[in-house]
Amino acid sequence: MTELTLAKAINLGLRRSLADDPSVVLLGEDIGRLGGVFRVTDGLQAEFGPRRVMDTPLAEAGILGAAVGLAYRGYRPVVEIQFDGFVYVAFDQIVSQVARMLARTAGAVRLPITIRIPVGGGTGAAEHHSESPEAYFVHTAGLRVVEVAGPQDAYTVIQQAIACDDPVVFFEPKRRYYTKGEVDTETALADAPPMGAARVVVPGSDVTLVTYGGLVATAVDAATAAADDGVSVEVIDLRSLSPADHDAVAASVRRTGRLVVAHEGPHEAGVGAEIAATATERCFEYLEAAPVRVTGHDIPYPPAKLEMHHVPDLDRILDGVDRVLGRVPSTGAVIA
Amino acid sequence: MPGITDSTTRDDLSPAGTARENLTTHEAGAPDGRLADEGADGGAGTVRLLDPDGVRHPSPEHDRWLTDVDGDDRALLRLLEDMVVVRRVDTEATALQRQGELALWPPLLGQEAAQIGSAHALRRDDFVFSSYREHGVAYVRGVTPLDLVRGWRGVVTAGWDPYAVNMATPQIIVGGHALHGVGYAMGVLADAEHDTGRADGTAAVVSYFGDGAMSQGAVNEAFVFAATWSAPVVFFCQNNQWAISEPVALQSHVPLVARADGFGLTGVRVDGNDVLAVLAVTRAALHRARTGGGPTLVEAVTYRRGPHTTADDPTRYRGTAEVEAWERRDPIDRLSAYLRDRDVLTDAADAHVRDVADRMAAALRTDLAAIETPPPLSIFEHVYAEPNPALAAERDGYAQYLAGFADDVAGGAR
Question: What GO biological process terms does the UniProt entry carry, in alphabetical order (chain B) (predicted)?
Answer without folding.
Answer: branched-chain amino acid catabolic process
